[in-house]
Task: inverse folding
């Protein structure tokens, strides 16, 4: 593979950024990172579309379908940890090429085995293979985090992730087009669209992306990030935002079919709307966090998510599709905003911790990049596992009560808990320190309100 390594990289230096070509190089890498991640998300979401093609001839009940769409989420979440550290081990450009080519494994395999009469075990194995698409997010975000200065991370990470998240809506739109034109018995057409796109994404990454020499493989950073309580607090909050986005994306079509009796074509007409809007607003969430502070945006976003879930609970009890759709789509939009604001918080938190250690300037920025990059893999992995929880909650809810209402009530309670955690850890005013007493590290709003 052709070497393409950048020896020196200091995005916090405004002269380097504006006059030395840093901004241009970072944006070029961002563009091709978004493309690769976009296709990765499409492959990861493949089974949210495949289940729409699985009629009675496949002999899979609704509970089995919810389990099928949960499996890629689980595998993708686990893979996010090694994918994060692969960037430093192999280089961001090199790993983007490899991770893109790995997407050929589940797509080509599915093109051979997805047909009536195939065993459920085989379907589970092929669904698990699509988890490699979920890993792409972690490596892509870690890579782009290294290219951009702290003052623009909310926008850059939001744009990178939002462009990737659009892959969910894109594959659902393609599924709709195939069902509407060729019928619900031709899932291979969807795969035929993506296989060449995967090759193109890998080729463009090889030609136009770069590796950063300063991003070294750092086991110490991984250990330090795993030991830091903020990594796990942000993981918990990311379950509420990204876990909701990916879980609802995978389950939306099945909920419409089982809760409201929609046909696969009816469901396909609606399923892409939520993921599309949630993806488009993610950069807005990042931009709002850049301006007002990620903690503040995240706090009020969780309150709005709880309110939207309350509307969905009422609609679910009344079986009112007219009330359900606005509430559920609002959840997608709010999860997208929360995704952007929480990912802005991560580098900000570790930069604040660097300053609390007495570091300044580039030393503080480098320490923050090192720890935030390592923590993103863990946070992204745990957040993705929230999507597994959502699909398993729906599965149990429909299996035992033939309705999604109990699952939505549980989600509402979780959002309320996320609101309280965000307030208590990042926005609550600390008790006044007695005169003369020392405070080794500031807490609450004094330290983290602006992250």
Result:
């Amino acid at each position: 593979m052709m070497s393409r390594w950048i020896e020196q990289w200091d995005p916090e230096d405004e002269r380097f950024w504006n006059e030395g070509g840093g901004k241009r190089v970072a944006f070029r890498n961002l563009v091709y990172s978004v493309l690769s991640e976009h296709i990765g998300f499409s492959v990861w979401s493949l089974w949210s579309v495949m289940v729409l093609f699985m009629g009675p001839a496949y002999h899979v009940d609704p509970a089995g379908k919810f389990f099928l769409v949960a499996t890629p989420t689980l595998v993708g979440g686990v893979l996010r940890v090694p994918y994060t550290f692969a960037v430093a081990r192999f280089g961001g450009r090199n790993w983007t090429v490899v991770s893109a080519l790995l997407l050929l494994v589940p797509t080509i395999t599915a093109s051979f085995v997805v047909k009536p009469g195939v065993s459920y075990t085989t379907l589970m194995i092929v669904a698990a293979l699509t988890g490699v698409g979920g890993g792409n997010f972690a490596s892509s975000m870690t890579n782009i985090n290294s290219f951009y200065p702290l003052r623009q991370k909310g926008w850059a990470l939001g744009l990178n992730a939002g462009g990737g998240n659009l892959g969910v809506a894109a594959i659902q739109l393609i599924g709709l087009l195939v069902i509407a034109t060729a019928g619900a018995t031709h899932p291979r057409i969807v795969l035929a669209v993506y296989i060449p796109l995967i090759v193109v994404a890998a080729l463009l990454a090889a030609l136009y992306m770069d590796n950063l020499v300063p991003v070294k493989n750092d086991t110490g950073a991984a250990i330090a990030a795993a030991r830091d309580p903020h990594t796990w607090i942000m993981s918990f909050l990311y379950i509420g935002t990204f876990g909701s986005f990916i879980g609802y994306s995978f389950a939306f079509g099945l909920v419409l079919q089982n809760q409201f009796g929609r046909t696969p074509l009816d469901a396909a007409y609606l399923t892409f709307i939520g993921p599309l809007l949630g993806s488009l607003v993610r950069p807005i969430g990042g931009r709002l966090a850049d301006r007002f502070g990620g903690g503040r945006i995240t706090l009020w976003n969780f309150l709005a998510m709880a309110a939207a879930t309350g509307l969905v609970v009422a609609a679910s009890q009344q079986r009112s599709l007219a009330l359900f759709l606005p509430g559920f789509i609002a959840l997608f939009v709010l999860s997208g905003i929360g995704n952007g604001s929480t990912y802005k918080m991560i580098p900000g938190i570790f930069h604040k911790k660097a300053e609390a250690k007495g570091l300044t300037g580039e030393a503080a920025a480098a320490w923050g990049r090192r720890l935030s990059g390592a923590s993103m893999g863990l946070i992204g992995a745990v957040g993705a596992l929230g999507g597994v929880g959502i699909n398993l909650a729906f599965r149990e809810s429909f299996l035992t009560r033939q309705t999604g209402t109990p699952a939505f009530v549980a989600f509402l309670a979780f959002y309320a808990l996320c609101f309280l955690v965000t307030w208590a850890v990042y926005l609550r005013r600390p008790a006044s320190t007695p005169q003369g007493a020392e405070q080794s590290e500031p807490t609450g709003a004094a330290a983290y309100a602006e992250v």
